Q: What sequence folds into this?
């Protein structure tokens, strides 16, 4: 890993992890059993997510796996959560202008997606074994998974603290809600952004504008989906419709990207393969060789 990138990644990760440890300590100070079960859920959720992505052909074969996975998860759960805290000003702005329905949207959409995108880009630039667009998908997915597990743990602690019945009931209700609505939301959106970053980083003969455009487009997609997901529709039935529509678009987009990545990674597993180069070479041969 490049020393400059190592430092750039390490500092916000350490600060973010310390903040999460404070949240965890608060949970244990309130109820040891509830906090322990929430932590167990977090470990299981993370392990299942890592196992699932490791079964795909997107998993990089020429990288120090443990270090790469740990860096992704720690950025998402540490630095990603730290960057997410910058959304306070946007929340205040929405409140001051009376846009109550969009408070959660502004508080989470732009900053959380930006934090995951930044972390994915830094990690792709730091590990020499990451050289394919689908490595961007896997990296983004793991960064998003780290963020999501930390967020679930935090919401579980808050749910336990505010529940009128018991800490355990509030924590279980919070986890159950997040498992039903929006499961792997952060991993999915960060994976799509990572796929775009992978193409921006690892293709040749593409303009700078094209690379910036594909990354900006992926971030904008994540922002809009996240904004819509968090947006509060006052009429309950319409709010349910909104959630279903957004979920179909989000998971549908990820399914398409996952399918494309699966096909590409199975077809071009050669470590010497450079994305988009085969097409350029074919054109060159066609132009030079007479019919």
A:
């Amino acid at each position: 890993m490049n020393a400059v990138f190592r430092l750039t990644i390490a500092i916000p990760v350490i600060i973010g992890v310390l903040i999460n440890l404070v949240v965890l300590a608060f949970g244990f100070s309130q109820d040891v059993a509830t906090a322990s079960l929430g932590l167990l859920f977090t470990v299981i959720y993370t392990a299942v997510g890592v196992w699932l992505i490791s079964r795909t052909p997107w998993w990089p074969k020429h990288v120090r796996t443990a270090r790469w996975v740990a860096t992704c998860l720690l950025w998402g759960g540490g630095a990603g959560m730290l960057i997410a805290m910058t959304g306070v000003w946007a929340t205040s702005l929405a409140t001051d202008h009376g846009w109550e329905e969009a408070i959660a949207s502004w508080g989470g959409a732009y900053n959380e997606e930006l934090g995951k995108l930044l972390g994915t880009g830094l990690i792709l630039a730091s590990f020499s074994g990451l050289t394919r667009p689908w490595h961007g998908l896997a990296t983004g997915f793991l960064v998003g998974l780290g963020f999501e597990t930390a967020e679930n743990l935090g919401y579980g602690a808050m749910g336990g603290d505010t529940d009128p019945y018991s800490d355990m009931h509030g924590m279980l209700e919070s986890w159950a809600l997040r498992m039903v609505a929006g499961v792997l939301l952060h991993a999915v959106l960060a994976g799509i952004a990572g796929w775009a970053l992978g193409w921006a980083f690892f293709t040749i003969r593409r303009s700078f504008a094209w690379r910036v455009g594909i990354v900006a487009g992926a971030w904008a997609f994540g922002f809009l989906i996240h904004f819509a997901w968090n947006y509060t529709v006052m009429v309950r039935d319409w709010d349910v419709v909104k959630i279903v529509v957004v979920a179909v678009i989000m998971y549908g987009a990820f399914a398409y990207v996952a399918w494309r990545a699966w096909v590409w990674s199975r077809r071009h597993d050669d470590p010497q393969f450079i994305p988009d180069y085969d097409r350029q070479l074919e054109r060159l041969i066609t132009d030079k060789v007479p019919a």
